[in-house]
C-alpha cells in the first residue's frame, strides 16, 4: 500500500468509481459457505485470526482510521480493505447463502461486529450498501433487483448513499417534496436531498421521492434506486465544524432511473423506508459501543494523567458515562431478542446512544480544560473533533425531537402532535 492519506484528497466525487475502475488484479475470493454450524467460540476465533493477520500485515496502518467526522481518512486504502474483507468472505454475513451471504446467526453477527471493533479495524466505507440497502432488498426487493445489486454490494464494487433528508424535511421523512414522475420506461426526478453521507463517492443512491402529485405525509412516496453518475445530478459538499465534508447536498434536475428500480410498490415507499431505518439501528450498534468504550477509556486515562480525575464531580461524570454505556448494551441486546419493532425500540436506542455520545464529547472537553479551547497550528485534535462532531449525533439519523414523537405516539399511544 502507498502512503496513508488523511486529507480530503482521495474523496472526490468520483473517488469510489475511479478506485473501482482502476483496481489492480482482483483478490482471490473464497467460496461463500454457511457458518451456521460453527460454535460461537469457533466463529470468534476465525474472525480474530483473520483480523489479526491482516491488521498486523498489509493493512496495519489503517487501524482506527475513518468513521463519523473522519471519513476523509485514507479513503482509498479503506476501500481496498473492504474489498479484502469481501474476498475473504467477511461481508454480508447474515445474508442467505443463495444471495452470497454466509447465513450467520444474529449471535454470530454480533460477535463479528464486536471483534471488529475490539481489533480497532478501520471504519467501513461500504456500510450504507451492506447494512442498509442490502437487507432492504432482501426484504422488499424483486428477484431482478437482488440479482442486479446484491453482488456489487457484497464485493464492494458499487458504493451507495441514502437520499432521505431534505432542506424542508430534515428528520421528518414524511414531509419530503423531491418528486418523481414516470416518463415512459424511466422515472424523472427533481428536487434536493441534504446531509447525504458519502454522496460524493457513491455510485448509487436509494431515495425516497413523492410519486403521487398532491399526496401528503406518508402516502404517495416511493423508494427509488438512482444512479449517481449522470448529468441530472449535482453533488455539493457541506463543510462541517470539523473542517471535513463527508455530508453533501444532492440536486436532482430531471435525473433518470429505470421504471423497474422502485423497491416495493410505487406509493409504498414509507413502509420500505421504515424497514431500512429499523435495520440501521440493529446489530452494528454493538460494535459502535465497543468504539465508544475505547473513547471513554482514553478519556479516563487522560483525566488520570492530568489529575483531573481527582475532582470528585468530574470523577462522577466518568462513572456515569461508564454506567450509561452498560445501559446502551443492555438495551441493544434486549432489542436483538425481539422479533418485531414498531419503531419504538429503535427510537429509544437512537436517543440513548446519541445523548450519551454527545455527553462524551463534552466530558472530553471538561477533562482537557482550557487547553481544549486552542487548536494547535489550526488543526483540531482527536478530542476537539469528537466534541464538535458529536453535536450532530442528536440530529442525523433522526433528530431527538422526532424520536420522542415516535415513542410518544406509537408506543405510549399519546395524541399526535398537531401538524400543518
Automatic annotation (TrEMBL):
The alphabetized UniProt keywords are: FAD, Flavoprotein, Oxidoreductase
Q: Where is the composition biased (Polar residues)?
A: 1-10
What domain of life? Bacteria
Residue span of region Disordered: 1-34
Which residues does the UniProt record annotate as the domain Acyl-CoA dehydrogenase/oxidase C-terminal? 267-412
Q: Where are the transmembrane segments?
A: none
Q: Which molecular function GO terms apply here?
A: flavin adenine dinucleotide binding; oxidoreductase activity, acting on the CH-CH group of donors
Ranges of residues in domain Acyl-CoA oxidase/dehydrogenase middle: 161-254
Listed name of the protein: Acyl-CoA dehydrogenase
What organism is recorded for this protein? Nocardia speluncae
